[in-house]
Amino acid sequence: MFRQTKKRVTSRRNFSEADGVSGSVILGSTSEGEKKLYDTIYSSKLSFYELPPQGEITLDQFEIWAIDRLKILLEIESCVSRNKTMKEIEVIIKPHLAKLMPFNTDKFEDRKKDYYSHFILRLCFCRSNELREKFVRAETLLFKIRFNMLTSNDQTKFVQSLNLPSLQFISDEEKRDLSQQLYQTISSQLQFQLNLSDENQRQSYFKQEKFIKLPFENVIELVGTRQVFLKGGYAYLPQFQQLNLISGEFSTRLAHELGTTYRNLPHLNEDDRLMPILHHLSSGYTISDFEQGEFDKQDGDINAKTVYSTEISQNYPLCAKNLLKGLKSSHHLRYNGRQQLSFFLKGIGLSADEAMKFWTDAFTSNGGHLSVDKFNKEYRYSFRHNYGLEGTRINYKPWDCRTILSKPRPARGEFHGCPYRDWNAETLSLELNAMKLTKTQVTSVLDSCHRTEYTVACTQVFEYTHGSSRKVDDQTHITHPNLYFERSRQLQKEAKQHSV
């Protein structure tokens, strides 16, 4: 797909002269100058990404690094859509950072990956106001999470490296003159934000705390909630709240740089290696994952008879429940419905032999319109093919949410697809009420559907139906029906063990 001959390489432009569009991306290399650059940029382990990256990376690195960062940003966006608090978001995102993009290290490759991936995604998401706003919001939250993961010494070192005119600390004399007002302003914050319940602890912390003096409009969101002391048009910001100021500066600069990148984007149009990757990444900027999990675990409890059992079926996502309900009522499913349900049941552990029993019984017994001979003649091969037992013998995987949403919407008499996309608000509300969601929760799910965030809606339903009675350890976004089932089944088994 990407031609990398020497002739093509020498004929290409170097985009380093364009602000926000830089770097030759053909052959991976590392120079001493490049190492020194990243040592300077990451002297405090965080960066405002002010300088364009230098050096060369491979096309594989270009795409893989961008996808890894995008996974983290998508998870952050999902958390925001699900109204997670900042602390909850940090708990969810930290494992992703450790796995995909460790930053609190001194490894050169980790720093290079972080820096390049940020600039690559700038190229992807500078193309419209909506994409720019989403990118700035997610990157700013990522910046806050990383800042909070630093030690206090690293935080101070980073702040000092910024050289922001607004980050000017007041003198000890001025602090003494305003000590009473400053302490009264932040005392409650010390108690509730930093968990300093003892008065002596708060007094001791206040004596050591430094304050920043800056125009009040720079922290207007803190002024409205009376979290800063005001005098003469200036706000006095305690150091432990400096992240609000720094993240605001980061957000403003990034928004400006995205605009600059967009203006320089036409320079890239002649490069046929990069544009397909960029289009793929930007078109994938929705709440969905880029990879499909492995769901080939065999569960001995799953067989042709237990598929409809109360114990098993209460773990099904709404799409699977709808398919099984349609199959039970009509004794038949059309092609897309058969494929979606067949792969889902395969993923939860229904073996090939048990699948033949299940589908034969579903199509032929209790009012079914087919004889066993006709079923074997018209459908048996297809179901065996899904298990890799016929034809090319491919081991097909269960459909993820992205695949399901890419299929045509169900017509009359069809049951495939995603209920959060395909059902009207009234029908979905009735179903959610039957699942014992509160009025507020139903409204929240419907709002997500209205915003076309269907996997967010599904994740919300999982949390509402599982999170109230027991702790859900894995709170990451659900982008696969079988992932929904596996988490629900695991919680169900844990609950049974605790009740014994």
TrEMBL record:
Listed name of the protein: DNA primase large subunit
Keywords per UniProt: 4Fe-4S, DNA replication, DNA-binding, Iron, Iron-sulfur, Metal-binding, Primosome
Taxonomic lineage: Eukaryota, Fungi, Dikarya, Ascomycota, Saccharomycotina
Function as written in the Swiss-Prot or TrEMBL entry: DNA primase is the polymerase that synthesizes small RNA primers for the Okazaki fragments made during discontinuous DNA replication.
Annotated DNA primase large subunit C-terminal domain residues: 313-485
Entry's Gene Ontology molecular function annotations: 4 iron, 4 sulfur cluster binding; DNA-directed RNA polymerase activity; metal ion binding; single-stranded DNA binding
GO biological process, one term: DNA replication, synthesis of primer
Family, similarity comment: Belongs to the eukaryotic-type primase large subunit family.
Keyword check for Nucleotide-binding: no
A Pfam short name: DNA_primase_lrg_N
InterPro entries: DNA_primase_C (IPR058560), DNA_primase_lsu_euk (IPR016558), DNA_primase_lsu_euk/arc (IPR007238)
Cofactor(s) needed for function: [4Fe-4S] cluster
Keyword DNA-binding: yes
Cofactor note: Binds 1 [4Fe-4S] cluster.
Binding site for [4Fe-4S] cluster: C319, C401, C418, C458
CDD domains: PriL_PriS_Eukaryotic
Gene3D superfamilies the UniProt entry points to: 1.20.930.80
Domain of life: Eukaryota
GO CC annotation, single: alpha DNA polymerase:primase complex
